[in-house]
């Protein structure tokens, strides 16, 4: 399996924090993976039912060529991490962070209120 290096400067160009960008890309890769897994399960469902409820004794252990072809097609696809990086660099998705609540200020306010009492 070959490893494709990623130019981190390209990732950093759209957002300052590289860590946040990597987290967003990994979340997108998980989404892609879940979508593909659901698609694969849907395509293989008829074959699983044939194996569970075989019409004859010989079909119970049978591996269908179509089943193998579907599995090989999914294995030949580009890896989800690489696809999510490509999509990010092509601006097909972006991420935004929720506004941060300033916890330190909230704690300071609580301390000031207790000092007043």
How would you portray this structure in words?
With 117 residues, the chain is mostly helical. It has one domain (8-116). The chain has helices spanning 8-14, 18-52, 65-76, 80-89, 103-116. Helix 2 packs antiparallel against helix 3 (65-76) and helix 2 (18-52) crosses helix 4 (80-89). The longest helix is centred in the first third of the chain and has 35 residues, at 18-52. The protein is elongated.
What key attributes describe this structure?
117 residues, mainly alpha, 5 helices, elongated
Oligomer: single chain
Rg:
25 Å
Cα distance, first to last residue?
66 Å
Mean pLDDT: 82
Order of helices and strands: HHHHH
The count of domains is 1
Q: Poorly predicted ranges (pLDDT <50, ≥5 residues)?
A: none
Q: Into which percentage range does the β-strand content fall?
A: under 5%
- Tell me, briefly, the overall form: elongated
Total number of helices: 5
Say how many strands there are: 0
Query: What does the main sheet amount to?
Result: none
Structural class: mainly alpha
Helix content: 55-70%
